[in-house]
Amino acid sequence: MTLHRILSWTPAAVVFDCDGTLLDTERHWETARRRVLDDVGLTPAAGFAERAKGLHYTECGQLMADEGGRPELGADLADRLLRHFRALVCEHPVIMPGARDLVRAAAAFAPLAVASNCPRDVVEPGLEEAGLLRHFRAVVVPEGTIRPKPDPDVYLTAAQLCGADPADTLAVEDTHCGILAAVRAGLTVLGAGPWPGEETTALTDLWVETLEDPRIIRWATERTPLRTSPPKPAAAPSPTGSGLQQATAP
């Protein structure tokens, strides 16, 4: 999809990544990874931080163990990583520039969902504290049979819960891992953040340095709904009590 086409297109649903896209929590993951490595005295290979970005915490723990030459520590490092991250994320969440305005504008023309590699008990409280959770029809995370990014499951499930075909759905992402997941699910991808290099941007349909980009905000505010969204089906309360739809494992 060309630049002109994506900015004149109205998706049937919009699915947002959370870390680094909606909330500035990537800095917490970076700090947590450093603390875990310091805890156990491991030193990964150069470029580890970029390779770890966007990975599910279990995969990141194993990556740290493998690159530190102690593969048997993978599960332990993953547990340490999540504990450190949870302690850090209890701080007041910081919303990424432009995210609040884009979410509000997009919610006016399409159902929204979040597709994240973080645990639900981290994502939903963070979005609630930031005042964003109420805009989303569903929050999808790796649980049950839903595999983490870069597998496509979270995006396929999010589109389904929004009642949209993946081909008619926009993903908003910031990492190579997440973009791969969205592409594999068949979504159109808007990438946002510092320029990550040609390998990553080539996978997206449009890349912007920030969601504050005037073209994106103008595009969102000028959209009109493709159709009237059906009433939201009743859903069992989530573990955090948000009442959001959750995927049911087949």
UniProtKB/TrEMBL annotation:
Disordered: annotated segments: 220-250
Annotated keywords: Hydrolase, Magnesium, Metal-binding
One annotated GO molecular function: hydrolase activity
Cofactor(s) this protein cannot do without: Mg(2+)
InterPro entries, per the entry: Beta-PGM-like, HAD-like_sf, HAD-SF_hydro_IA, HAD_sf, PGP-like_dom2
Domain of life: Bacteria
Any Pfam family hit: Hydrolase
Gene3D superfamilies: HAD superfamily/HAD-like, Putative phosphatase, domain 2
NCBIfam families attached to this UniProt entry: HAD-SF-IA-v3
Annotated family: Belongs to the HAD-like hydrolase superfamily. CbbY/CbbZ/Gph/YieH family.
Protein name: HAD family hydrolase
Organism (species): Streptomyces eurythermus
